[in-house]
Amino acid sequence: MLCVAAAAFHGAGSFDGSLGAAHEGFERLVGGGAALAFAAVLLASGLSSSGVGTYAGQVIMDGFLRVRIPLFLRRAVIMAPALIVIALGVPPDTALLLSQVVLSFGIPFVLVPLVLISRRRDLMGDLVNRPLTTLLGIIAAAFICGVNVYLLCSFVP
């Protein structure tokens, strides 16, 4: 979708980068089918990421922490932030941007334990990471944490 958008919008005048403008631009420049495909792909990507996140959280809670949360409560907790954002009337582009910022700060809380756990032979058995893989994981986690700290410091007065 990004490649199609770049090709369609290149040289087509000003584009403010909003989701609504992208949809309108697809409809105007490529046709209603492209606009519908854009909306469907955007919806599908949101649903798939939500599903993966929900399933990953369930595996962690059940498998590692041995904590079982009733399905209704789990879904209510997962949906609460989105429903609050909708209820507050936050513009979709702002909500998308804020969600990505919040998610970027959650990555270190996943990466660091992943690197620490996957290097332990007593937990991983034969699937333990090799030292080079662990080193690359530490470098990646440090880089991502550093970028997050930099962005936080550069945008917060």
Describe the structure in your own words.
This protein is an all-alpha fold and 157 residues long. It has a domain at 91-157. Helix content is 80%, strand content 0%. It has 7 helices and no strands. Helix 2 runs antiparallel to helix 3 (32-64) and helix 5 (92-118) runs antiparallel to helix 7 (131-155).
Which features would summarize this protein structure in a list?
manganese ion transmembrane transporter activity; cadmium ion transmembrane transporter activity; transport; mainly alpha; 7 helices; 157 residues
Mean pLDDT: 84
Strands, count: 0
Give the SSE order as H and E letters.
Answer: HHHHHHH
Distance between the termini: 36 Å
Radius of gyration: 20 Å
What share of the residues does DSSP label as strand, in percent?
A: under 5%
Shape: globular
The description of the largest β-sheet is:
none
Unreliable residue runs:
none
**Proportion of residues in helical segments:** over 70%
Alpha-beta classification: mainly alpha
Q: If helices are DSSP runs of H or I spanning 4 or more residues, what is the number of helices?
A: 7
Keywords: Membrane, Transmembrane, Transmembrane helix, Transport
GO cellular component, one term: plasma membrane
Pfam family, one: Nramp
Membrane topology: Multi-pass membrane protein
